[in-house]
């Protein structure tokens, strides 16, 4: 029900354990304080006169200053230790940090309002979906194309801000195969709520299969609607913003569409991926995700459904 309470990676587990520990410490303090207040109320309830007033006790003051300070230092220390284990700090070079030299397995770029994902080894590019093998600790480089976003997969990793002009690193790892919901966790404009993504964790063999499938170039469409749609796609300058590998479309403003048919959702989670929904989206993206960078091209129903047919052939 609450993904934060169902950790599926060592990092998320460590965060959850720390949360429980801090909760327990707070509960003990709460019980002591609330208990003392209750006792004072109970004992003082029937007194008609003021109890004996006593001012200043150096000994007691020292106790209640040193006690809380120790507790706060303890929590700070265990939190700092946790940060060291969950943050994937970049490796440092003798000549200082050169970010181009930092080895990352995945580069994730936050855009208003979608996520671009690059697998650095294979060069595979995804949008709003991250396929990963289980049991492997992946270093993720986070960067932004525009404003501050925040990358968060509650079951797998900590939250990490995605800041323009800066690179942040975290570990992403899943112990069990499954689908994990991710979210942008920093308000970034009017479609912040629709900046979702999913992490699909596959068994290593399955992941290798997925990787091999992604590397095969998509075939040219043969169905008549798709062929018409392909012409319209280029006539309507879709290629000014999008990439479809193996074509002249090589722009990177919008999501890479090379394999859009294999995606389960479109618009960073706003609609399930189907020909009907893609047609709706193409007819007027602004009606579905107001403010998104894709303009309304005033396509007719036929044009939209033909382009949708072309895109659904890209698998
Ligand atoms: Cu991106 Cu909120």
From TrEMBL:
Localization per record: Cell membrane; Membrane
Entry keyword set: Copper, Electron transport, Heme, Iron, Membrane, Metal-binding, Oxidoreductase, Respiratory chain, Translocase, Transmembrane, Transmembrane helix, Transport
GO MF, one example: copper ion binding
A Gene Ontology cellular-component term: plasma membrane
Taxonomic superkingdom: Bacteria
Domain (Cytochrome c): residue spans on this chain: 224-315
Cofactor note: Binds a copper A center.
Domain Cytochrome oxidase subunit II transmembrane region profile stretches: 1-90
Transmembrane segments: 20-42, 62-84
Sequence ranges assigned to domain Cytochrome oxidase subunit II copper A binding in this UniProt record: 101-213
A Pfam family of this chain: COX2_TM
One record GO biological process: ATP synthesis coupled electron transport
Entry similarity comment: Belongs to the cytochrome c oxidase subunit 2 family.
UniProt-listed PANTHER family: CYTOCHROME C OXIDASE SUBUNIT 2 (PTHR22888:SF9), CYTOCHROME C OXIDASE, SUBUNIT II (PTHR22888)
Listed name of the protein: Cytochrome c oxidase subunit 2
Native organism: Bythopirellula goksoeyrii
Gene this chain is encoded by: ctaC_3
